[in-house]
Write a structure and sequence with these properties.
Radius of gyration of chain C: 11 Å
Number of domains of chain C: 1
CATH topology of chain C: Alpha-Beta Plaits
CATH topology of chain A: Rossmann fold
Shape of chain C: globular
Number of strands of chain C: 4
CATH architecture of chain A: 3-Layer(aba) Sandwich
Strand order of the largest sheet of chain A: 2-1-3-4-8-7-10-9
Radius of gyration of chain A: 18 Å
Number of domains of chain A: 1
Largest sheet of chain C: 2 strands, antiparallel
Oligomer: heterotrimer
CATH class of chain A: Alpha Beta
Order of helices and strands of chain A: HEHEHEHHEEEHEHEHHEHEH
Largest interface: A-B, 41 and 44 residues
Helix content of chain A: 25-40%
Helix content of chain C: 10-25%
CATH architecture of chain C: 2-Layer Sandwich
CATH class of chain C: Alpha Beta
Structural class of chain C: alpha+beta
CATH superfamily of chain A: Thiamin diphosphate (ThDP)-binding fold, Pyr/PP domains
Number of strands of chain A: 10
Number of helices of chain C: 2
Strand content of chain A: 15-25%
Chains: A alpha/beta, B alpha/beta, C alpha+beta
Strand order of the largest sheet of chain C: 1-4
Number of helices of chain A: 11
Shape of chain A: globular
Largest sheet of chain A: 8 strands, mixed
Chain lengths: 267, 382, 65
């Protein structure tokens, strides 16, 4: 099958701005699913609110466009009631780590087999460019006109700390490895978090002196490095990308099946 | 004693009824005075292959049951006061997406943390208007365990029939009162299963296109029809739209499917209404007091009767109007400052004959609270 | 991903929003932006079919055929 077999073509061109990284992530997700040869009827996409969430309308799977921050809570209901389905939750940085931060750390703690894809553009795009939990200290946003005094979360370390059994980071520049990472995250039997740095030229870029989407991709190219690289030792400011954690842990739905077995014996 | 006769508290009756109605998925968060529902379901649901999950908060519990419901499972959550406030946004999502779901709110004193272990009926209006935006919702209540069982089964049936969240608005007194419950035999109360689409794979399925009878057959997530579910205003395929005609029709559908079936949804109980000159209207635990007063005064020859409401929303205005017609006075008995009182006044032509007998301090309404009002009305002073 | 070499990008003009990512990062400089701010394959002979333009296109407007 081709990419066009996985999308709802009648809604294209999509609503995202020219150069928006979210389209690249959507393409990457589709190609990962295509490679894995997953049946379309077995896939449920659950999104929250914001630019990222609009991915639901474009993908020809079971799609659930929910409320701000709660994608993982809905996804938990879907997954636990039908564990055989592949459940993927694409979310924005605000969705995943501001309003919905609690759900992410608890989904990680449970190790429920859901793939969380954080489309991290460091800004609230849909509402016009306010600072998010990943907007850097000293960066600008429409609600940080003098500069942002909040310190950003390190999503990868936060997810690891919360107990996620698969944690990775990649960027929209590094598309081929992005696709491989998404494949691995989907195949991982447990909760997986993939942070994908995604450019928002319209708001983050404009507020922070990036002339274009191209400039932002160059930034990802030049300011990131594979985990544990030599470059990182020489330049500690480089952001590492790759798979940080990939470990086997008891998965929540499997564990619940054991509870069912125990309970039905007891009856 | 037969083994289908049990001595339980209201929360346990609700659990028995939910299981009877086919509950398959429960998500919740501990809160007094509803916690026993979660505790008991964590034990009982896995015994029948169902799923229980204690979520990280009230919001996610509501979200999780919507997710589960979309895969075809009968789903419920239970909470009290503050937790009910927290669930409201997701309840609105269930309204907008027409996802069957049952929400138990065992009311306690409010606002805020209020009186966690005391009874109240302060959430009547919140049940109707708690979530933002114009909408309609079904809300039911009961005054004893046997009725709590019946309305809980009803709640699941109505939720599936009308594709809507249904709120079970119990109160602390009913939830924690231990009394006899006869568990009906299987098939004694009709259990309605989800209406599934007959549209075959490969044929265009419209999740939001009502049939002629107004019902919308569903297709489970994971089934052969892939469609979109969104809290945005949407078209018959479930895709977002701002088209004014489509949005107008959607809004009307959401409200009309419930308001237009008020008669079908309404459940009431009547006691001594035929010749009643003084009519009590009550619901939930307050109706127990109202019934006691009614029976007590009847013994003394007074023409008093009780109309017990089990459906609060949509408010059965026509029926209330009819029953009030021949009464010279109407007394609404409730544990709030008149939330149903105002609905009764709106429903009838002579609202000046409607009075309130209430309690808002956390204690159960006593017969004397009602009798005092009767005396005042009769000009005998308090 | 499994496509054979020597396929060339086909650009759906009505989906292309003209961000220029494909042009900038084409390893062979085979693409240019035209006067309408749409990407075009100006030098098909240079194209090696590496697919990077397709994979990086935010608009899903490029398909190698």
């Amino acid at each position: 099958m081709a990419v066009k077999d996985y999308i709802r073509e009648k809604f294209f061109p999509h609503i995202w701005c020219p150069g928006c990284g979210h389209g690249i992530i959507m393409g990457g997700l589709i190609r990962a699913i295509e490679t894995l040869q997953k049946e379309k009827n077995d896939i449920v996409i659950v999104s929250g609110i914001g630019c990222s969430s609009r991915i639901c309308g474009y993908l020809d799977f079971h799609t659930l466009h929910t409320i701000h921050g709660r994608a993982l809570a809905f996804a938990t209901g879907v997954k636990l009631s039908r564990p055989e389905l592949t459940v993927i939750a694409p979310m924005g940085d605000g969705d995943a780590f501001a309003i919905g931060g609690n759900h992410l750390i608890h989904a990680a703690r449970r190790n429920i087999d859901i793939t969380a894809i954080i489309m991290n553009n460091n800004i609230y795009g849909m509402t016009g460019g306010q600072y998010s939990p990943s907007t850097g200290y000293g960066e600008f946003a429409t609600t940080a006109p003098y500069s942002n005094i909040d310190h950003p979360f390190d999503f990868v370390n936060l997810a690891i700390g919360a107990g996620a059994s698969f944690v990775a980071r990649t960027t929209t520049y590094h598309v081929t490895s992005m696709i491989k990472i998404i494949e691995k995250a989907i195949m991982h039997h447990g909760f997986s978090v993939v942070e994908i740095m995604s450019q928002c030229p319209t708001y983050f870029g404009r507020k922070n002196k990036f002339a274009s989407a191209v400039e932002m991709l160059k930034y990802y190219r030049d300011h990131t490095t594979p985990i544990g690289s030599k470059d990182k030792k020489n330049n500690p400011d480089l952001i590492e990308r790759g798979i940080f954690i990939e470990k086997e842990m008891p998965e929540y739905c499997d564990e619940y099946d054991k509870i069912i077995k125990m309970a039905s014996k007891g009856e | 004693m037969k083994d289908n006769v049990v001595f339980v508290q209201g929360n346990e009756a609700i659990v028995e009824a939910a299981l009877y109605a086919g509950l398959n998925f429960f998500a919740g968060y501990p809160i007094t005075p509803s916690t026993e529902i979660a505790e008991l379901l964590s034990l009982r649901l896995p015994q029948k292959g169902g799923k229980f999950i204690q979520m990280e908060d009230e919001l996610s519990s509501m979200c999780a049951i919507i997710g589960a419901s979309l895969t075809g499972k009968k789903s419920m959550t239970a909470t009290s006061g503050p937790g009910f406030s927290l669930k409201q946004e997701a309840i609105g999502f269930a309204v907008m997406t027409e996802t069957p779901s049952v929400i138990v709110n065992v009311q306690r004193g409010g606002p805020s943390t209020g009186l966690p272990t005391s009874g109240s009926q302060g959430d009547v209006m919140q049940a109707k208007w708690g979530t933002h935006g114009e909408h309609a919702i079904i809300t039911m209540t009961a005054s004893n365990n046997q009725d709590a069982f019946a309305v809980t089964v009803d709640a699941f049936n109505l939720s599936e029939t009308f594709r809507t969240p249904v709120i079970l608005l119990f109160d602390e007194v009913v939830a924690h009162t231990r009394e006899r419950l006869v568990i009906p035999k299987p098939d004694e109360i009709k259990v309605i299963q989800r209406l599934k689409t007959s549209v075959k794979e490969g044929t265009d399925y419209h999740p939001y296109l009502p049939r002629e009878d107004g019902r919308l057959p569903m297709s489970d997530f994971g089934g052969v029809h892939r469609y979109n579910v969104t809290g945005l205003a949407h078209d018959m395929w479930g895709f977002p739209t701002t088209d004014s005609t489509t949005v107008y029709n959607l809004m009307h559908h959401l409200v009309d499917k419930i308001q237009g079936h008020t008669k079908e949804i309404a459940r009431t109980k009547e006691y001594y209404l035929d010749d009643a000159e003084c009519l009590l209207i009550s619901y939930g635990s307050s109706a127990r007091t109202a019934l006691h007063v009614t029976e007590d005064r009847r013994l003394r020859g007074e023409k008093i009767g009780l109309l017990e409401l089990q459906t609060l929303w949509p408010f059965p205005a026509e029926e209330v109007k009819k029953k009030c017609l021949n009464a010279s006075c109407v007394i609404v008995v409730e544990m709030n400052m008149g939330q149903i009182l105002h609905e009764v006044k709106k429903a009838i032509d002579d609202p000046e004959k409607v009075f309130l007998a209430n309690q808002i301090n956390g204690s159960f309404i006593k017969p004397s609270d009602v009798l005092n009002i009767i005396r005042i009305i009769q000009g005998r002073g308090a | 991903m499994t496509k054979k070499k020597k396929m060339k990008p086909n650009i759906k003009r009505e989906w292309c929003k003209g961000c220029g990512i494909c042009v900038e990062f084409c390893p062979e400089d085979a693409l240019i932006m035209d006067e309408m701010e749409k990407a075009v394959l100006a030098y098909p002979d240079k194209c090696t079919g590496c697919m990077l333009c397709e994979l990086r296109c935010p608009d899903l407007a490029i398909e190698l055929v």
